[in-house]
Amino acid sequence: MELKGIHHVSALTANAADNYSFYTEVLGMRLVKKTVNQDDTSVYHLFYADEIGNPGTDLTFFEIPRAGTTYPGVSSISATSLRVKDDNALQYWKQRFIEYKVDHDDIITVGGRKIVSFRDPEGQRLKLVSDETNNGVKGGTPWKKGPVPVENAIIGLGPSHLTVNDPDPTIKVLTEVLSFKEIDRYPSLVQGQQDVRVFSTGEGGTGAEVHLETRPDLPRERPGRGSVHHVAFRVDNEEELQYWKERLQSARLPNSGLVERYYFKSLYFREPNGILFELATDGPGFTTDEDPEHLGESLALPPYFEQDRERIEARLKPLDI
Questions:
Q1: SS3 for 107?
Q2: How many CA atoms lie within 13 A of 224 on its CB side?
Q3: Domain map of the chain by residue range?
Q4: Which residues are 8's β-sheet partners?
């Protein structure tokens, strides 16, 4: 049994309103769910994705208003990739970044794919990666009502980039527990460092990879606004999620057990370098409680929070959509 690829990536923001403006107005992603952090209902949890929030397209943010500055380092998800259709789209984005004064780098080729690295206003480390040569997991469906032409729009999540001090424990979990396969290596962009190692699962391709970088020269990351909280991998259904729970227990990896998130079911655990992984089911999805035409327009709460809606809404700063 194999994981199907990247399900979602969850990151931290100190300002939900500014975050919403950047990811919808500049990056052209759709806010498919405006809800709350189910572990702390006093703050927002925002989901940006393709047209209907297909698995593998969700970049989510927990709002932590007092979050401090991120100090990059190891034991981290150090960059998140966003997929675009082809190399031509990167040219469009380079001009768009200039127009919107987005901090970005030049287009380069890394591991056989063209990419452009950039940062959001809080320093979130992001990459656009071209699907020009992708033969694996298909991308999502761009939001047709967004500000970016569909031929250039973001179509999903690409490889998650992990940075660690010692790669061996992480590799053991990826390959022996989660059944990823090492398929490639490419030179680090930092002179004198080891090659970045590429691990793939399921159908492979840009939507199903983890890139592992070894940096013994760096301290442990101090997370804050602009850092990544966790990466989630796709599981078909709850039955398979139970299988993975038992597999983690057999490997003596402490885990959360199955967690109800309403839009999907989840299982959380930390690999030995301290990076938080989640396994999440593909369904039921974000249209389970909202019409596809009106996703993200109002505060959505799972049924088990509805009795507290008035109290929850009173504690949230209004977010105009």
A1: strand
A2: 12
A3: 6-315
A4: 58, 232
Taking alpha carbons only, the member of 90, 73, 108, 109 closest to residue 218 is 73
What's at 39, amino acid-wise?
D
CA distance 255 to 242: 12
Strand intervals (E) in the chain:
6-13, 30-37, 40-49, 58-63, 76-84, 104-110, 113-119, 125-130, 154-164, 181-186, 196-200, 209-214, 228-235, 259-260, 264-270, 276-284
Angstrom distance (rounded) from CA 45 to CA 60 = 7
Instruction: Give the rounded percent of residues in the chain with a pLDDT score beyond 70.
Output: 100
Biggest alpha carbon–alpha carbon distance for the chain: 57
Backbone angles phi, psi at 192, to 5 degrees: 90, 0
Whether the Cβ atoms of residue 173 and residue 157 lie closer than 8 Å to each other: no
Strands 196-200 and 181-186: antiparallel
Distance CA 16, CA 191 (A): 37
Confidence of residue 320 (pLDDT cuts 50, 70, 90): confident
Average pLDDT, the chain: 97
Q: 6-315 architecture in CATH?
A: Roll (3.10)
Question: Which helix or strand (DSSP H or E) is residue 89 part of?
Answer: helix 87-99
Picking from 237, 215, 233, 214, the residue whose alpha carbon sits closest to that of residue 285 is 237
Q: How far apart are CA 33 and CA 41, in angstroms?
A: 15
